[in-house]
Structure formats: structure tokens, C-alpha cells
Design a protein that fits this description.
Largest sheet of chain B: 2 strands, antiparallel
Helix content of chain B: 25-40%
Structural class of chain A: alpha+beta
Radius of gyration of chain B: 31 Å
CATH class of one domain in chain B: Mainly Alpha
Oligomer: heterodimer
Strand order of the largest sheet of chain A: 5-4-13-8-9
Radius of gyration of chain A: 23 Å
EC number (chain A): 1.8.2.1
Strand order of the largest sheet of chain B: 2-3
Number of helices of chain A: 8
Number of helices of chain B: 15
Largest interface: A-B, 125 and 111 residues
Largest sheet of chain A: 5 strands, mixed
Structural class of chain B: mainly alpha
Protein name (chain A): Sulfite dehydrogenase
Pfam families (chain A): Mo-co_dimer, Oxidored_molyb
Keywords (chain A): Metal-binding, Molybdenum, Oxidoreductase
Shape of chain B: globular
Distance between the termini of chain A: 49 Å
Cofactor (chain A): Mo-molybdopterin
Shape of chain A: globular
Number of strands of chain A: 24
Distance between the termini of chain B: 70 Å
CATH superfamily of one domain in chain B: Cytochrome c-like domain
């Protein structure tokens, strides 16, 4: 049995009604949820093992990944979006972490899994899944952001929801073996002026070239996320984790690592994931995801539903260059800023949650957030980005986002002067 | 190295503690603590046999240099490396011997590629265009094709060979790949129709946009000017809304499939011009369709219907029919024969379809026939980029097939 679905419109009307009443109200009548014995307080709930692997309770069925069908020709080669407007904290549950496939999510078992290292190594090697588990392993939390996140917003405000504008991101705790450990197992050339080419086992292969310096730094060959096996859609049983760099390089179903003299210049690093500037030339090798932030609530899919009074403004910030050191929030479209509270000290190349605990009395707001990272970089406005790049870059749009919060608590994606 | 020993030790110790705790907690189902349950010392852990795959080397690693090989894995055989090492570099490294002509390529392209990329590599629907777009890269909406954008021919060869056709990758022989790539070059006017591409002349081909790329220059052009202490108060004079997402109205319904009634937004002012996500590509395309109750399905010749089902494969990447059919890049087509033009709620039609809808026009078989023959002539301004079906019998067949799907 499912609850009657509340339509968004009814919901928003409800929010509007509530919004006019102020906070600390006095109840006119006793609340029957308190004064009457409720069925759940009388009968019994489920026994253990009713769901051997649990899913969120049905009341949360709206907190799911969503797709924008017109973006791509076919869902097999497409992307969907993490419901960041409905999450809190920083860790993204695997089940609602965005997916991006180029030839669909394949099913590859651990027993069928092979990883090859070849090319300019002393000895080309093949590993099984069990082999990987025998190397010393590490745990790290990193964000993974698609280079195209917010890419639909270059020419103007387009998609009405943080999920759609900023949901090509997730943040998980990975367990895996450093890539350098595997490369050294195969034996590396003395010089580091080399590249590694990494590819997946799916039909797209999604091959990418990574300079050796990064490969030896913090790249992980990961097989667990948030403590459990990777999900099929995230590359089970093994994916590459390339901290701070665009998600396309995080090759899923990783099957081969080749040490080479130069980059392959594959489809994914020439025809795609290159950023065309206003004069028609294009940047390549734009790997790092610059500092960025977004208010996740209030936002179009997460309007203010309560009355006037205390309001929690919250959002996420991240940087591919390291730690987030500060996030400022503006409620007036960037005229004035207040420094938000970071839930925890920023972590290297991982999501940081920020809060601004404030008061709202029904005034219109133009909510913005602005991230700064440990390099001193300040998240730019869309105008600043366009001045340098034009509007055709598609990728790497890390502009400051504006939500127009209206007196009824509803919010809309807008651009402001 | 004792670092790793400590690590193992504490992990095992942790498990022991947890078990003990669990036992103590189980007040109603008292189980006896497993005999001998106690915290293992690091040394014991190191000495314990590995669960599977032989001795792992906790102790062994103690003597090993920090980054020395652990002896895990096995040597890859030459046949194995050859089977997977398929990538081709810009200088032609990795190309197998072989050749293929534009003429052969045209046929192969038509059979294997045209369903998505169009007969002339001009693209179909939201699928990538492979030809055209020259001199558009500085335009408002650049058309990025193999000819206009790709800097290296090796990329095209490698990708066709490794990942195409979509859904049947690695099914083409090297000679076939050479032929298809030759045809793509021809479609972009880079080679003549009598050209044959081979591993011998491969690197002689010059791609028009070869010099069109620069290495990431953000550290020079952006980071210095976007650093430092930002403005906190009175940072601008005024704030005006310059654009609203609900005016464009291209956001999917919030509530998922059941389409939780989004307040009907204003009519989209302009055609949807969108920077698509990374698969990217060209503007949305869409074709027509749907809503009023359809006419009763015409009784039709089963053979014709079967033939139409085959023809419809060309349409399936953008249109769905049958139970539960949903809009894709084109609208779902259940009941399309006899249905109002441009009548599917929630589908974003081109202006020409909106107008036909406003005028109450319907998809008669004749009208559909004309549209499927030359879409762009029959409905000027349609977003459907499919060039049309050449054979009248194919058109009849697909209409017969579509007639079998009631709304």
C-alpha cells in the first residue's frame, strides 16, 4: 500500500499557506498524533530479515536519481543526477549516486574480472580480483564530479533544481590499492615523463590518458565504496578513482592500464571533454575540477515549507585542488555576503557541507554561495567565466548559482545581473 | 613496515572486541562465547594462514622494501596483450595493416552506422553528427564533427574499431574500419570519392582542426584573477533577474514518472537551444505527436506490418511504441495514426508542430506518408533530423506497423 501521492502543486500551495504563519505558534487543539494511541505504538513492526538488504523507507521514494531525457539520444549512453537537494551530510549513498554510462552499465563478476598492466613496464602483468585484495590498501573520501555538471547552464538558467544543475556529483569513501603500487609491481621506467592509458571492460572502453605524475600521486584502483562493493552502475567490481579530476577519467570496470610515451588522444579526450572557447579554439587536458559550491536547500526542489523564523540554509562545496577553506553565502544576489559555518573542516578533494543558520521573515531572497579553497581560489560568477571562455565550453562550469526564493517559500533557478 | 602489521593487528582486534560486545548484548538468546575468542596479537595475525590464494605476505612484507614488488599477479601472455592492447595513437602506433575504400565504406556505413549517424554521416536525432560543421566552432552553437572538430584521425579509427557500432562493438574487421573511416572523411570533403585509406597513408591525412587545441591554460588565464580576499559588502549596485529557468521550462517533472503536475509554465519563448551534457551534441530534436484518442487501428496486412516493424528499427532510437512507451528524444507514437499533430502532453514540439496542433490538424496516413518521405519539407522547421525513408513501400509498411498501436 502506498501513500496517496502529494502533487508538487498541492505541496507548494501547502507550503505557501504555512509560510504566512509565524514560527512559535500555540496549538489550538491537542494533536491527535500525541493524544491518541497510534497503530505503530500498539501493534508490531517487521521482524528482522524482512529486507535482508534494506532500501530507504517508502516515504523517501522521491529521493532518487533523475534523468533529463532530452539531453541525450538514448539512456544507454547518458547521465542522471544525484538528488543533492534532499541529502545532507557529505557522503552520497551509492544507490542514489549519479550514473554516467557510455555503453550501458555492464554486469562483470569478480571471477570474470581481469586487470592488465602493459606497455612500457618491466613485465606486463595480469591480476585477478583476488590479487588486488592482497595489496596493501587505503581508504579515502573523494568527490567525483562529471566535467559536464552545470554544463546546461552556460547559456542561461535552464534546469529548475539543484539535482539537475549540480547533481552530476557524488562523494564516497573508497577502499582500494594506490595505482602506483600496481605500476611498481610491474616495474616502471626510470623517467616519469610518461603517461598511463586506462580503459574499461565495457564496449565504450572510455579510454583516458593520465600523466604519470598524477598516476603516481593519489590515483586509486578501488573496489569498495562506502564500505561495500561498488554498485554495477559505478563499475563493479573495480573502478579507477582520480581525485579532484573530472569524472570521465574515473574509468569503470577498469580492465587495462598501459604505460605509454604520450597520450592516446582518445575520443573521450579530444572530441569530448575538451572546452571550446569563444574564438573557436579549444582547451584540452582540462582535468582538474575547480572550486565550486551550491546551496542545496532551499532550492527549487526543496522549497521552504515552514513559517517565518529560523531557517537553515545549507549546501555543498568542493575543490579538485584540495580543501575548502571557506564558503560565503549571499541572500541578496551577491551584494552582501556572510561566511557560512562548515560542518567539518574541509577535506582534501571531498565534499564539504556548509550551513548558514539564519532568520527568514518571508522576504524575497537571491541565494548564492561562493567557495574558496586552500589555494586561495574564489569561485567565479558566470559572467566572469563567460568573459574568459564564452558560452560554448560545455564542461567545467563552476559558476556561482542563484536561487530566487519567493515570499511563499518556493525557489527558482535564475540568473541575476 | 610494522605499519602494516599494526594495521592488521588492530583490524583483527576490532573484530574480536565487536564479537564480545555482541555476545554480551544478546541478553535473551544467550550464546556462549566461541571458545578461545580473544584478541589476536599482531604476531599471531601475521602468522595466520591467509584465507585464500596462498600466503600473503604480512610477515614477508616486513623485509621487503616499501615499494618493492610483492609478487602478486602473473605475467601477461603476448596473445593476451595483443587481444586487449588495441589503442591507436596519433602517430599511427597500434594500427593493424589493412585498407578500405570510400566506396566500400559507403555501403558499410549504411549498414552499420546510418541508423544513428544518418546516411551521409549528418547525424540522426540526438545522435552525433559525424560530418559537416566546418567553420562553426566560433559560432553560438558550434557543430562538432569528425571533420570540423576532431584533431586526430587515429581517434576516429580507434573508436570505430574499439567501440562501434553501438551495441555491437568490436565486430568490424580492420579493413572494414579503414573503409568506414574513409567514408567519414569523404563525407567531410577531406578526401575524394576514389580514396582508399590504409595503414600506409594513414598519417598523411590532415585533419582540418588539428591545430585547434591548446593545453589547459586556466592556471595562467583564470586562477590569478579569481584569487584573494573577495568582496563582502556592497559588492554591486543592483540585482536584476536576467533569466529564469521556468521560462525556458525544460526541467523534467519533479515527481518522476507519474509526472506530478508541474504548474504549467509560460510557453517557451524560443526554441530550446541547449548546451547538452557531455554526450552532447546538438540541439534537441523532436518530432511530433500525440494525444487525442486515436482512430481505431486499421486492419492491415500482417506481412506489411512485419515489414514495418523492421523499418521501425530506424526510428527506435528516438521513438517508442507499445505498452508503457514514453517520450524519448521524439514523442511516443502509440496511436499516432489519426492522432492530433503535436498533441502529446509534456513533449516539447517545434514551432511548426505547435502551430499544426493549434490548427487542429491530425496525422492522416497521407500526411504521415509525406512527412516520413521528407520530414523537413513536409513540416518546415521540424526538429526531427531523420532525413526520411527513401522507399515508398517502407513508408507504407511503417505506417501499417504504427497503426497497430492504439493509444
Amino acid at each position: 500500500m502506498s501513500e496517496p501521492k502529494t502533487s508538487r502543486r498541492a505541496f507548494l500551495q501547502g507550503a505557501a499557506t504555512v509560510a504566512v504563519t509565524a514560527g512559535a505558534a500555540r496549538a489550538a487543539e491537542p494533536d491527535p498524533l500525541i493524544t491518541e494511541v497510534q497503530p505503530w505504538a500498539q501493534g508490531l513492526g517487521d521482524g528482522v530479515d524482512v529486507t535482508p538488504y534494506g532500501l530507504p523507507i517508502r516515504f523517501e521514494e522521491d529521493v532518487v536519481r533523475r534523468n533529463v531525457p532530452w539531453l541525450t539520444a538514448d539512456p544507454i549512453s547518458s547521465i542522471n543526477f544525484t538528488p543533492i537537494h534532499a541529502l545532507d551530510g557529505t557522503i552520497t549513498p551509492q544507490g542514489c549516486a549519479f550514473e554516467r554510462h557510455h555503453s550501458g552499465a555492464i554486469e562483470l563478476s569478480k571471477s570474470d574480472y581481469r586487470l592488465m598492466i602493459n606497455g612500457l613496464v618491466d613485465k606486463p602483468l595480469v591480476f585477478t580480483y583476488e590479487d588486488l585484495e592482497r595489496f596493501p590498501r587505503e581508504n579515502h573520501v573523494y568527490f567525483c564530479e562529471c566535467a559536464a555538471n552545470t554544463g546546461m547552464e552556460w547559456a542561461g538558467a535552464q534546469l529548475n533544481g539543484a539535482q539537475f544543475t549540480h547533481g552530476m556529483i557524488h562523494n564516497m569513501e573508497y577502499t582500494g590499492v594506490p595505482l602506483r603500487t600496481l605500476l611498481r609491481e610491474a616495474g616502471l621506467p626510470a623517467t616519469t615523463e610518461k603517461w598511463v592509458y586506462v580503459e574499461g571492460a565495457d564496449a565504450s572502453s572510455n579510454g583516458r590518458s593520465i600523466p604519470m605524475e598524477k598516476a603516481l600521486d593519489d590515483v586509486l584502483v578501488a573496489f569498495k565504496a562506502n564500505g561495500e562493493a561498488l554498485r554495477k552502475e559505478h563499475g563493479y567490481p573495480v573502478r579507477l578513482v582520480v581525485p579532484g579530476w573530472e569524472g570521465n577519467m574515473w574509468v569503470k570496470w577498469l580492465r587495462r592500464i598501459e604505460v605509454m610515451d604520450g597520450p592516446v588522444e582518445s575520443r573521450e579526450e579530444t572530441s569530448k571533454y575538451t572546452d571550446t572557447l569563444a574564438d573557436g579554439t579549444s582547451r584540452k587536458w582540462t582535468w582538474v575540477m575547480d572550486a565550486k559550491s551550491v546551496v542545496t536547500s532551499p532550492s527549487p526542489q526543496s522549497p521552504i515549507r515552514h513559517g517565518h523564523g529560523p531557517l537553515v540554509i545549507t549546501g555543498l562545496a568542493w575543490s579538485g585542488h584540495g580543501k575548502i577553506t571557506r564558503v560565503d553565502v549571499s541572500t541578496d544576489g551577491g551584494k552582501n555576503w556572510q561566511t557560512a559555518r562548515l560542518a567539518r573542516e574541509g577535506e582534501n578533494k571531498a565534499l564539504t557541507r556548509f550551513y548558514l543558520d539564519t532568520e527568514w521573515t518571508g522576504e524575497e531572497m537571491f541565494l548564492q554561495s561562493r567557495a574558496m579553497d586552500e589555494t586561495g581560489y574564489v569561485q567565479p560568477t558566470k559572467t566572469q567565466l563567460r568573459d574568459v571562455r564564452g558560452e560554448n565550453s560545455v564542461y567545467h562550469n563552476n559558476c556561482i548559482q542563484t536561487w530566487w526564493v519567493k515570499p511563499n517559500g518556493e525557489a527558482e533557478n535564475v540568473e541575476v545581473s | 613496515m610494522s605499519k602494516s602489521l599494526k594495521l592488521y593487528g588492530s583490524v583483527f582486534g576490532g573484530i574480536a572486541v565487536t564479537l564480545t560486545f555482541a555476545v554480551n548484548m544478546a541478553d535473551r538468546f544467550v550464546a556462549e562465547a566461541p571458545e578461545g575468542l580473544r584478541t589476536l596479537t599482531p604476531l599471531e595475525v601475521a602468522a595466520a594462514p591467509a584465507p585464500a590464494g596462498g600466503f600473503v605476505a604480512a610477515a614477508h612484507a616486513e623485509e621487503a622494501p616499501k615499494d618493492g614488488p610483492l609478487g602478486i599477479g602473473r605475467e601477461a601472455l603476448p596473445e593476451e596483450v595483443a587481444a586487449w592492447n588495441l589503442d591507436v595513437s596519433p602517430d599511427g602506433t597500434g594500427l593493424p595493416p589493412g585498407s578500405g575504400s570510400v566506396e566500400d565504406g559507403e555501403m558499410l556505413f549504411s549498414e552499420n552506422c546510418a541508423v544513428c549517424h544518418g546516411e551521409f554521416a549528418e547525424g540522426s536525432g540526438n545522435w552525433p553528427k559525424l560530418a559537416g560543421g566546418e567553420d562553426t566552432l566560433a559560432n553560438k552553437d558550434p557543430v562538432k564533427t569528425v571533420g570540423s572538430y576532431w584533431p586526430h584521425l587515429s581517434t576516429a579509427w580507434d573508436y570505430v574499431h574499439r567501440s562501434m557500432p553501438f551495441g555491437n562493438a568490436q565486430s568490424l574487421e580492420p579493413d572494414e574500419v579503414y573503409a568506414i573511416v574513409a567514408y567519414i572523411l569523404f563525407s567531410n570533403f577531406i578526401v575524394d570519392e576514389d580514396f582508399t585509406l590504409s595503414n600506409e597513408n594513414f598519417t598523411d591525412v590532415v585533419m582540418p582542426n588539428e591545430g585547434g587545441f591548446i593545453v589547459d591554460d586556466r592556471p595562467e588565464t583564470e586562477y590569478p584573477q579569481w584569487s584573494g580576499e573577495p568582496c563582502m559588502t556592497d559588492c554591486k549596485e543592483s540585482v536584476e533577474i536576467t533569466m529564469r529557468a521556468t521560462v525556458l521550462d525544460v526541467t523534467p517533472d519533479h515527481g518522476g514518472e507519474e509526472a506530478a503536475a508541474e504548474p504549467a509554465a509560460e510557453t517557451p519563448a524560443d526554441a530550446v537551444e541547449v548546451a547538452t551534457a557531455d554526450t552532447s551534441t546538438e540541439a534537441t530534436d523532436a518530432a511530433p505527436a500525440v494525444a487525442e484518442p486515436a482512430a481505431a487501428p486499421a486492419a492491415a496486412d500482417p506481412e506489411l506490418i512485419a515489414a514495418g516493424e523492421k523499418v521501425f528499427k530506424k526510428c527506435m532510437s528516438c521513438h517508442a511504441v507499445g505498452e508503457g512507451a514514453k517520450n524519448k528524444s521524439g514523442p511516443e507514437l502509440n496511436g499516432v495514426v489519426g492522432r492530433g499533430i503535436g498533441s502529446i502532453d509534456g513533449f516539447r514540439y517545434s514551432k511548426t508542430f505547435e502551430e499544426a496542433h493549434g490548427a487542429g490538424e491530425t496525422w492522416t496516413p497521407e500526411r504521415l506518408h509525406a512527412f516520413l518521405e521528407k520530414p523537413k519539407d513536409a513540416m518546415k522547421g521540424t526538429k526531427m533530423s531523420f532525413p526520411g525513408l527513401r522507399k515508398p513501400e517502407d513508408i507504407d509498411a511503417v505506417i501499417a506497423y504504427l497503426s497497430t498501436f492504439a493509444e
